[in-house]
Design goal:
The chain is mostly helical and about 200 residues long. The protein folds into two domains: about 120 residues, Serine Threonine Protein Phosphatase 5, Tetratricopeptide repeat; about 80 residues, Serine Threonine Protein Phosphatase 5, Tetratricopeptide repeat (Alpha Horseshoe), CATH 1.25.40. Helix content is about 70%, strand content about 0%. The protein is built from eleven helices and no strands. Helix 9 runs antiparallel to helix 10. It is globular and about 45 Å long. It starts with a helix and ends in a 5-residue tail after the last helix.
């Protein structure tokens, strides 16, 4: 299977307003490569785009309740199987952001952090917790600016999200400490420990 070709076609289908076809293509890729970040992101976008319509995907997905299958897979400690079942559960219920978040969580526990980030990123504009989770994963992967953007998205949805506020503040402080303006040469005589505490609000 040419994964890139499949995903290029899925992206084109999304642009043409064909979310069901895009989701079907991405689902095929994820059966073959469950950790593919682009496929997970595009499938999530496609599912969200199809939420307002009667989806044709339902007839193509097993009639066995996917959420029940996911619980069974978790019980027998099969994270890959749980992630696959949660993906199908999300596809069957496009209105449920929570199921998308559950899929991302299952992906992360299965060791597919990139794919989990792809899902959370697609859900970020709809859910504060998803945006915050995307920020955490992006930060862990070293994508500082992406992480800051996701934390800001979480705060745009809920300005009182103290966890997102704290994470954004801490990350911004770390970024400032690592920037050129705080290099060893320019920081001569600067109490960096005091600066760190002040930036993180630990002195307040």
């Amino acid at each position: 299977m040419n994964l890139k070709k499949h995903l290029d076609r899925a992206e084109q289908a999304l642009e043409k307003g064909q979310p069901d076809f895009a989701a079907e293509l991405c689902d095929q890729v994820l059966d073959f490569a469950p950790g593919d970040q682009r496929a997970a992101n595009l499938l999530s976008q496609a599912v969200l785009d199809s939420a307002g319509e009667k989806s044709k995907l339902l007839g193509k997905i097993s009639s066995v309740p996917a959420s029940i299958a996911a619980k069974f897979q978790r019980l027998i400690r099969n994270p890959d199987g749980e992630a696959r079942s949660m993906r199908r559960s999300f596809m069957r219920d496009a209105h449920s952001i929570d199921k998308g978040i559950s899929w991302a969580d299952a992906l992360e526990r299965a060791g597919y952090a990139g794919a989990a980030l792809g899902v959370y990123s697609a859900l970020a504009s709809h859910s504060g917790p998803a945006a915050r989770a995307a920020g955490d994963l992006a930060a862990a992967q070293g994508n500082i600016q992406d992480a800051l953007d996701h934390y800001q998205s979480a705060l745009d949805i809920n300005p009182r999200d103290t966890a997102a506020m704290r994470s954004r503040k801490n990350l911004a402080a770390e970024q400032a400490l690592q920037s050129k303006q705080y290099s060893d040469e320019s920081a001569s005589g600067l109490d960096t420990d005091a600066f760190r505490r002040a930036a993180l609000g630990e002195d307040s």
